[in-house]
Structure formats: C-alpha cells, structure tokens
Task: inverse folding
C-alpha cells in the first residue's frame, strides 16, 4: 500500500523558517517525481514545487521562488521542503504528493501538515 | 501562468442526478488535464488524468472529456459519497495550476 506521511508542520513567526518532511512507503520512491501542494484554510489547491527522480530538476511556483527549497533523499525514501522567510500568506496545509507515472499530475497524497505563520 | 476556471463554483443536486462540471484553460493544454475529488478534512484523490482516463479504483460513473481549452467532468448518477469539492488541474506547463473548485452539495 502506497503511503506518504508528512511531518514538521507547526506555528512559526513571520520571517521564520520551517522544514517539512515526507516519508514514502509501499512504492519505489526513487522512481517517481514528487510534489508539494498546499491549501490555505478554506481555499483551493496551489501547486508549490516538484522534483525529478534524481533530484536534478526542480520547479517552483513564483510566489515561493528564492524562499522555499525542495529536496529528496532516495536512500531514506524522503522528500523535504525547506521554507524560509515565511509570510502570513504561506499559512496552509502542505501535502506531499507522488507524481503520476509518465504523465504530469499526482496520484497519491499524504494527510497533510499544517503550517501556521503568525506573530 | 495558465489560468484554470471552473464552473459552476457550487451546485446542489440529488442522489441519482447527472452532474456536469466544466473547466476552461486560458490557453490550449491539449489533454493535460486532471480531475480531483476532495472531501472535508481529507487529501484530494485523483479521479481522471489525461482529460478522460479513469484512475484505477475510481467508479465508472465518473467520466471526463475535452481537449484544448474546454473540459468536462461528469458523474452519471450521483451517489451519497460523491458530495465533495472537485478540482481540475493542468499539467501542460509549470506551475501546474488548479481551478478554484466546484462544491457539490446535497439538494
């Protein structure tokens, strides 16, 4: 069974940093693109970033470029999102999501990690 | 960025009804269109990818169609477990933008 489990969410002050982690199991983690998608409270979905299987290609939405860094450790079946210079508008549930095989999109999602940016 | 616009934003329907949701892209995305269902407090689940391909395990009452800029998600006979919010997503270019969502409520 495919499982994705996020951790690392919490309350942080504006300008602060936080690192999210996601551990995958039940599939060959190193064979898939991986994504972060977020959802602000009561709002829609926003794709944040993704990373290629080997970690050498990374893409970001403009609003987080230069502040967030996606990375992975295939030996640990883990995906990360380092978030710096956090803003109020980064408050959201952050989902880790597996990329579809041979097609852009996502199939399996974690349960989400809540990040609250507030003073 | 490609803008995705869904309509309607919400709808009320009864069990057994046929429901159709529309998604329009701001430019051609060929068939790089996915549909997701999200229930309150839960992560989204993939229903349709490639505009019309049913994800494994998804009931056949769900179907998708379209190409270019106009797409539809149809539910042939609405079931109680289908009351949820539905999102379209384009995978044609980065960032992979989502529509704003369509909430399907019980009439």
Result:
């Amino acid at each position: 069974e495919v499982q994705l489990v996020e951790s690392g969410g919490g309350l942080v002050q504006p300008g602060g940093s936080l690192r999210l982690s996601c551990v995958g199991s039940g599939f060959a983690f190193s064979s898939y693109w991986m994504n972060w998608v977020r959802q602000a409270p009561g709002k829609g979905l926003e794709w944040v970033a993704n990373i290629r299987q080997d970690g050498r290609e990374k893409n970001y939405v403009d609003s987080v470029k230069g502040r967030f860094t996606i990375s992975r450790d295939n030996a640990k079946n883990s995906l990360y999102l380092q978030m710096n210079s956090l803003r109020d508008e980064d408050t959201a549930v952050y989902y880790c999501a597996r990329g579809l095989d041979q097609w852009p999109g996502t199939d399996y999602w974690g349960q989400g990690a809540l990040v609250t940016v507030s003073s | 960025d490609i803008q995705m616009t869904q309509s309607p934003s919400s709808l009320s329907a009864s069990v057994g009804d046929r429901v159709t949701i529309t998604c329009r892209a701001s430019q051609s995305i060929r068939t790089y269109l996915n549909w997701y269902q999200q229930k309150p407090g839960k992560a989204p689940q993939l229903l349709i990818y490639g505009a019309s391909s049913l994800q494994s395990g998804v009931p056949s009452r769900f179907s998708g169609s379209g190409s270019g800029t106009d797409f539809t998600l149809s539910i042939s006979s609405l079931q109680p477990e289908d009351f949820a919010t539905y999102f379209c997503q384009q995978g044609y270019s980065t960032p992979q933008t989502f529509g704003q969502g369509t909430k399907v409520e019980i009439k």
Observations:
- The mean pLDDT of chain A is 97.
- Chain A is about 0% helix and 50% strand.
- Residues 21 and 89 of chain A are 20 Å apart (CA to CA).
